[in-house]
């Protein structure tokens, strides 16, 4: 299927050409994953959206990003094309408000393919309030599954929607900045930024 690209989408396709090299298996699929770049104060983020909602938001320096996108494409059985839809546009607007300190929750529709356990873990992340943190142990206890700390931590790491599903708010039991695939420097920045813009100073261990 041939698509006439807007100039900005063509630039994106050339800058991230590696994304489209993993695309051949579903070249004729009716399912589409629209990919674009969103600028942030912490560097560029890649955003992916389907007709159901936003399904990817990751910093461009995230480790194993190519595998994450390939796995998502396989889950969706989708072809990837450069471009935007209403969900990626809304995500960009809401991220801009977030980084201005004006937004503490997100309303963009999300598309998060995964099994029931993964869905439960990601939902538990959404329950951590802006400006607060919890430990992996506390997260497991809140899920009534205290023996599943490692499985929960691993599933946190498979969250594809950075910031919006706030896995950065989960920290080590001693306050360490552990387990953030885009770098602990970004995790610490996000937590400090949220704390500085929050009236709540509870449950911050660093």
TrEMBL record:
Pfam short name (any one): DNA_binding_1
PANTHER family: METHYLATED-DNA--PROTEIN-CYSTEINE METHYLTRANSFERASE
Protein species of origin: Pedobacter antarcticus 4BY
GO biological process terms on file: DNA repair; methylation
Class of the enzyme per the UniProt entry, highest EC level: transferase
Enzyme nomenclature, EC number: 2.1.1.63
Domain (Methylated-DNA-[protein]-cysteine S-methyltransferase DNA binding) ranges: 116-195
Protein name per UniProt: methylated-DNA--[protein]-cysteine S-methyltransferase
Domain of life: Bacteria
Lineage of the species this protein comes from: Bacteria, Pseudomonadati, Bacteroidota, Sphingobacteriia, Sphingobacteriales
